[in-house]
């Protein structure tokens, strides 16, 4: 009888211990998932900065104001682009002596070289499924748009025009790539299919437009524009068909390089607040409620 009671008590203790272990495993899983979601860009943005007298890629949690140097390399690192899952950053670098594209895995910190060409490669952009990367390169003799697999394989030329093409960005639905081109004797925004076909001009070629950025729903692009040609770049929005062109920022300073961080907010670079060096700012998607995100004496830009 005593032995039986002792055995039953031991069973209860084992079951309780297993229950606690399972609870700890579930809690750990939740914490890891939350950590991955944080890194996937729910409240952070990657950007280029010259702080420390060196060009590096940083990550800013704009809710907490926490900044992290991601690259930590003496060479020039710039123009970062976050992967759709937020776990990788592709960027341009001179770390091997030539301007090539590299990818940083935020899970393990490993940097992998993607391109190996005597020409210059820049302005990478991820496809929505994370399988492909578009970029600009002068490997054809002038700047054109290329694509490759996310591991650097299967490089394909998408544009072949005597004028320069640059700054490609995938639409959220993966059906179009927006890019800038000087093919109509001024920088303007064009759309094309992912294979380079069906190129369409969507911005007014009389007005200089650069740095297109898609809204999460794919209906709107924000661009940097200087309609007056007086050097006062502002941010403008236009619909996917090129209509409804409207001004978002009104400031004597230089506003540029916008990226949508969610459906309602845009992060951009600006020299406002009397700064000669650009800092990062956030605003509502209609241009209201501008607030400053970075505070230093160096250049911060290229948010992604």
Instruction: Specify Rg, calculated over alpha carbons.
Output: 23 Å
Going across the biggest sheet, name each strand in turn: 3-2-1-24
Structural class: mainly beta
CATH level 3 topology of the largest domain: Neuraminidase
Please describe what this structure looks like:
This protein is mainly β and about 300 residues long. It has 2 domains: about 1-40; about 45-300, Neuraminidase. It has 1 helix and 24 strands. The strands form 6 sheets. It has a 4-stranded antiparallel beta sheet. A hairpin with a 5-residue loop joins strand 4 and strand 5.
Summarize it.
The protein has 304 residues and is mainly β.
SSE layout and pairings?
Layout: H1 2-42, E1 44-49, E2 56-61, E3 66-69, E4 77-82, E5 88-93, E6 100-105, E7 111-113, E8 121-126, E9 132-137, E10 144-149, E11 156-157, E12 165-170, E13 177-181, E14 188-192, E15 200-201, E16 209-214, E17 220-225, E18 234-239, E19 246-247, E20 255-262, E21 265-270, E22 279-284, E23 291-292, E24 300-301
Antiparallel strand pairs: 1-2, 1-24, 2-3, 4-5, 5-6, 6-7, 8-9, 9-10, 10-11, 12-13, 13-14, 14-15, 16-17, 17-18, 18-19, 20-21, 21-22, 22-23
